[in-house]
Amino acid sequence: MDYLQAWDKYSHLTYDDLPEDVKTVAHQCVLDWFGCALAGSREPLSGILRDEFSHRQGRCRVLGSNLGLDAATAALLNGASGHALDYDDTSAAVGCHATAPVLPAVMAVAEDIGASGADLMAAFVVGVEIEGRIGNAIGPKHYLNGWHTTATYGTFGAAAGVAHLLKLDASHYASAMALAASAASGVKANFGTMTKPYHAGQAAERGLIAARLASRGFTANADAVNGNQGYVQAAGIGSVNSAKLEQIADSWLILDSLFKYHAACYLTHATIDSVLNLRSTMDADGLQCLELSVNPNILDICGICEPKTGLEGKFSLRANAALAWLGCDTSNPQIYVDEVICRNDVQAALAKVRVSTDESLTHMQTRVRCRADGHETLEAYCDTGIPCRDLPLQGARLEAKFDALSAPNTGDMDVLRHRILHLADMASVAQITAC
């Protein structure tokens, strides 16, 4: 089932058509993103973007500020804020941070046209599902070649979500996706800088614009995604993985969302959890060496050897192993600041971390060996690629995370949390952004 056939399945989908577990996880994704975006709005990169784009006045709220901007610019700024901390959800099933580019786009358009919360939620789910089908059609080589899939797949997901909200027919939807094919870009070389979260904002903005232009009759080649000289071919993949698309045809990919409880790249989380397990059994002061075994491809993503900034620390296996060993609270985004990463104790612990590779491990698995004074060598292993199926437990953890991230903001965060978790009951998205 290609991206055009997927539209036949999803174009008329309403919120009431969604299974209950899909509704639950979708609301959890929205809550998690809002907490990350509110906290991310205080980051320097978000302030720079507000300074640059504040003249683009409109009625769409920029989170964490009093600004009202046009829909495309609001999607750009909110999208960047939502990914600023790299603390938002991700998904191996989709192949990227699935919510980060899609939700800001559909939220801005929903606010602009006065859509209901139920309409927004349906459009969000559709955007994520089609985003994931684009990702599975292209496959992992795209990411391994250096493309940032949150930027590339995300542009298509944002376009599809907005297309659903605008109720585009199949022809206009095809044009929207073709326009997205010419807009989808972003490279992993910019990881560890402000540009990585900017990618999520760009994807939201560009996908939104693609759908809106298509709605006005702007033309594009319907074969621009998987046809000759189209996106799949140009991105260096070769051909669409049709077998994989058939395999997931009846799946709800959003159910495999993975949520972060450490404020760093998700591919460091198995390392953090493994080190925390070992640390509970011995004295941190006697550390001689931490030996990490990971999939070799991880080193192109979070292999920064000598991080000197907070952003670099988020993409350093060695730094995260050191922080965990020292007992730093990696759930707190304020751990990932320049001052902490450059602390003498962090740099000293970092120097004791060694990284080796093992192709038998997946991207979300880590094996750690630890040597410390007075202890035999101990080992720990963790796999963070398994989605949680206990949705009430997951919901409770995400509400606690939201409360921690949103605490410094003015306004009634209890009201905001309640409205987000009942977004589908809201007559207008403005009831959320007004908080």
Give the overall shape.
Answer: globular
What would the average pLDDT be, to the nearest integer?
92
**CATH topology-level fold name of the largest domain:** 2-methylcitrate dehydratase PrpD
- Strand order of the biggest β-sheet: 4-3-5-6
Strand-pairing-aware structural class = alpha+beta
Rg measurement, Å: 21 Å
Which regions have little confidence, pLDDT < 50, spanning 5+ residues? Answer: none
**Ends distance:** 40 Å
What is the correct CATH architecture of the largest domain?
A: Orthogonal Bundle
CATH top level of the largest domain is Mainly Alpha
The amount of helix comes to 40-55%
| Contiguous helical run count | 21
Name the CATH superfamily assignment of the largest domain.
2-methylcitrate dehydratase PrpD
Per DSSP E runs of 2 or more residues, the count of β-strands stands at 6
Q: Main β-sheet: number of strands, strand sense, barrel status?
A: 4 strands, mixed
Range of strand content: 5-15%
The SSE order reads: HHHEEHHHHHHHHHHEHHHHHEEEHHH
Total domain modules: 2
Structural description of this entry:
By secondary structure, this protein is of the alpha+beta class. It has two domains: 3-259 and 388-433, Orthogonal Bundle (2-methylcitrate dehydratase PrpD), CATH 1.10.4100; 266-383, 60s Ribosomal Protein L30, Chain: A. The protein is 51% helix and 8% strand. It contains 21 helices and six strands. It has helices at 3-10, 20-40, 44-53, 71-83, 99-113, 117-138, 141-144, 149-165, 170-183, 195-215, 231-234, 242-247, 269-279, 299-302, 310-314, 317-325, 338-341, 344-350, 391-406, 413-421, 430-433, and strands at residues 57-61, 68-69, 287-294, 353-357, 365-372, 378-383. The protein has a four-stranded mixed beta sheet with strand order 4-3-5-6, with helices on one face. Strands 1-2 form a two-stranded antiparallel sheet. A hairpin with a 5-residue loop joins strand 5 (365-372) and strand 6 (378-383). Helix 4 packs antiparallel against helix 5 (99-113), helix 6 (117-138) crosses helix 8 and helix 8 (149-165) packs parallel to helix 10. The protein is globular. The two termini are 40 Å apart. The mean pLDDT is 92.
